[in-house]
Amino acid sequence: SSPDAYEEISPVIAHRGASGHAPENTRAAIELAARQGARWAEVDVTISADGIAVIHHDADLKRCSDGDGLVIQKRLAELKQLDVGSWFAEQYRGEQILTLSELLVLANHLELGLNLEIKPTIGREPETVWAIHKALQQVHFEQPLLLSSFSIHALQSARRHMPHITRALNVEAIPADWQHRLEEADCAGLHFAKEFFDAAQVSAIREAGYHMLVFTVNDADTAQRLLQAGVDGVFTDLPQVLEQALGNARG
Ligand code: G3P
Ligand code: MG
User: How far apart are CA 251 and CA 217, in angstroms?
Assistant: First the structure.
């Protein structure tokens, strides 16, 4: 991992992998993102009952698997029994929940930069960060790496255990006290929702020396506008669309 992941960031980051065309946060979605030309992917990281870092967005298993209940109440062996592909399309039946270690090996192989979004269950922030730390000790990750979270507690924990990995604060709307919030967890970047884009705020944040990424942007015009306004990149479910529109313009 690099001292500042933003130096190597791509303007196009595959959101949960190529999640518009493959089941989010799975091996299939990550591989498709790479095939579609993405150089970076964002995934959501949480923990199993036995404290293993796994890739899943919701706390609950209902939406994105053939099971139900909470991820944090199932051991990895139970999670591995679930099918996380067929809810999206029959052709993806057989996809299994990825551990973070498996994802790191895959992204090394595909040469993909990773934004690990820490999605801890409230109260389990330190364990979630510790599980990420353990996975990164197990697998030497050779690509740029960026940690982010909506949870200040998780970011502070990350700062303690993995101070050398670049951190970003996730928010929906840009808070009025953004500078204070970024300083609280010593973050290099702010990631916010496109609905809350504000040109003056973006200029001020940039002038203060912070980086910005915006979620979730699935059309090229919006992406262009945001990049011109000074954000570093966008998260997209459709990396192919944005890579085609923006990729060639890269210096
Ligand atoms: O990390 C950016 C974005 O993924 C945050 O929202 O709900 O898609 O994880 P969400
Ligand atoms: Mg996310």
Answer: 22
Residue type, 220: A
**Phi and psi, residue 71, nearest 5°:** -55, -45
- Which of 9, 12, 16, 42 most suits a substitution to test ligand 1, by most atoms within 8 Å of the C-beta? 42
Domains parsed from the chain with CATH numbers: 5-249 (3.20.20.190)
Residue position matching structure tokens 């929702």: 193
What angle do the packed helices 220-229 and 239-246 form, to 10 degrees?
A: 60
Burial (CB count within 10 angstroms: exposed 0-12, middle 13-18, buried 19+), residue 192: buried
For 185, the 3-state DSSP assignment is: coil
* pLDDT 10s digits, 55-93: 999 999 999 999 999 999 999 999 999 999 999 999 999
CA distance 214 to 80: 32
Cis geometry, peptide bond prior to residue 166 (ω within 30 degrees of 0):
no
CA-based torsion, 210, 222, 201, 156: positive or negative: negative
Burial (Cβ within 10 Å: 0-12, 13-18, ≥19) of residue 243: buried
Where would I find the beta strands (DSSP E) of 74-125?
Answer: 113-118
Residue whose CA is closest, atom 2 of ligand 1? Answer: 215
Whether ipTM > 0.90 holds is: yes
